[in-house]
Write a structure and sequence with these properties.
The complex is a heterodimer of chains A (160) and B (273). Chain A is mainly α. Helices cover 76% and strands 0% of the residues of chain A. Chain A has a single domain (7-158), classed as Arp2/3 complex 21 kDa subunit ARPC3 (Orthogonal Bundle), CATH 1.10.1760. Chain B folds into two domains: 66-174 and 260-272, Rod shape-determining protein MreC, domain 1 (Thrombin, subunit H, Beta Barrel); 181-256, Rod shape-determining protein MreC, domain 2 (Thrombin, subunit H), CATH 2.40.10. Classes of the chains: A mainly alpha (160), B alpha+beta (273).
Chain lengths: 160, 273
């Protein structure tokens, strides 16, 4: 596995994921629709934490924000914080290529991003209906499983 | 594995840009930039959405074969149509000549000062995450869309209201979203409350005074007290009543009439002065 991101591939895959996420998957899978963009970005963070990658992650979040009603800024904030989390874990704990660690850290990143998004969403938009921890748990468990499955293939797809 | 640590300078710079963008968005200065991005992505999304509807319908139909769901849905659709007719008739008894002029869906509804028109449009994309549930439709300010306008499907069944308007597109927050809140009435008892979305797919009628009566199976209709949302649009029926002497307000679970996974054609309620 090469450790550099191929940005052409990354942008194309992110665009494809964006279109799938906002059309087919949303209709077909509803609640179970995966957050593909998050998974691709987490995969990318295992390869690179440089400024170009952060900018791509930021722009991906901005585009998602424009098509959602969550309020502007939530997605880019969550993505940047999640990448910061992954890059920190990577620098601290991954000294060499390790399949198991990548899967575990990808799952942790999914949990981290979900919690962050959920609580921002809750405090900003829906404090009056109360947090639904059952929903959070289901959603987090689902993202955790998907991240563990897909992050490694995504790393292969976007590496040079 | 590469050991490059995160670039904090860029991160700091991006956070500054983000906060500036949030500030500009709050002030309404981001609308044209958002509109431009919508125009860029929406033609592709629109095509993909309508194509994927075919795929979705294919899988749904496969699901339906096993339990005669298709037939059931036809009956449900017929039921909704009849319920709407009944709803209209009951409203005529209760209300005034405004609803006497209501003939059938897509015809103008005229009151003393203005008319309500149902403008046909279609969904072009869905929200990218499952916490908030919204869709983007291909009607915008150029079509007379205003913020908080009601959006329905065929049969006059309300599905949500407009949250943001661009020139050619609008965002619609669905009734099932935790952000959604619509002022409604229980049709028979006229109990007034708010229909609020939850995190899952459920919807609840809340803030019902303890002195008000709720009947299981009663229709829930819009009250008409909210700007942009006419009275009499149906949402669903009461599935379960939740009451306790220890709480200030009653609430009820609502069974919605619309299938939110199959939204394609929608109708936007607009006013013609």
């Amino acid at each position: 596995m090469n450790n550099e991101v191929n940005y052409y591939k990354l942008v194309i895959i992110l665009l494809a994921a964006f279109f799938l996420q906002t059309t087919l998957f949303g209709q077909l899978l509803g609640f179970f629709s995966p957050n593909l963009i998050l998974m691709i970005l987490v995969a990318g963070a295992f390869l690179s934490c440089d400024s170009d990658f952060l900018i791509v992650a930021f722009l991906s979040g901005v585009v998602l924000d424009i098509f959602s009603s969550s309020g502007f800024g939530i997605f880019p904030f969550c993505f940047l914080m999640t990448l910061l989390f992954v890059c920190f874990l990577k620098a601290k704990f991954i000294k060499e290529r390790n399949f198991a660690k990548i899967i575990i850290f990808a799952a942790l990143a999914a949990i981290f991003c979900n919690l962050l998004y959920f609580f921002i969403f809750y405090f900003v938009f829906s404090a009056e209906i109360g947090p639904d921890y059952g929903f959070l748990l289901q959603r987090t468990a689902w993202d955790l499983i998907l991240s563990a499955i897909f992050v490694h293939p995504f790393i292969r797809m976007i590496s040079k | 594995m590469q050991k490059k640590v995160i670039d904090f300078k860029t991160l700091f710079f991006l956070f500054i840009i983000l906060f500036i963008m949030i500030f500009l968005d709050r002030q309404g200065y981001m609308q044209s930039a958002k509109g431009a991005l919508f125009s860029f992505f929406s033609p592709i999304q629109s095509r993909l959405y309508s194509s994927s509807s075919g795929v979705v319908n294919f899988f749904k139909t496969l699901e339906d074969i096993g339990d005669f769901k298709e037939e059931n849905e036809k009956l449900q659709a017929e039921n909704i149509r009849l319920t709407f007719e009944l709803s209209k008739l009951q409203e005529v008894d209760r209300e005034n000549e405004l609803l006497n002029k209501q003939l059938k869906f897509k015809e103008d509804l005229c009151g003393e000062d203005d008319c309500l028109t149902f403008k046909e449009g279609s969904v072009i994309s869905r929200s990218p995450d499952s916490y908030e549930k919204s869709v983007v439709i291909n009607l915008g300010s150029a079509d007379g869309v205003e913020k908080n306008s009601a959006v329905t499907i065929a049969g006059g069944v309300m599905i949500g209201k407009v949250s943001e308007v661009f020139e050619d597109y609008s965002k619609v927050i669905l009734l099932t979203s935790p952000q959604s809140s619509v002022n409604c009435l229980s049709q028979t008892t006229r109990a007034n409350g708010l229909v609020k979305g939850q995190y899952g797919t459920g919807v609840e009628l809340e803030m019902i005074d303890q002195s008000e009566e709720l009947i299981k199976g009663d229709l829930i209709i819009t009250s008409g007290f909210e700007e942009g949302i006419p009275g009499g649009l149906i949402l669903g029926r009461i599935a379960e009543i939740e009451e306790s002497p220890n709480v200030v307000f009653k609430s009820a679970e609502i069974e919605l009439f619309s299938d939110f996974s199959r939204l394609e054609e929608i109708f936007l309620v607009t006013k013609n002065e």
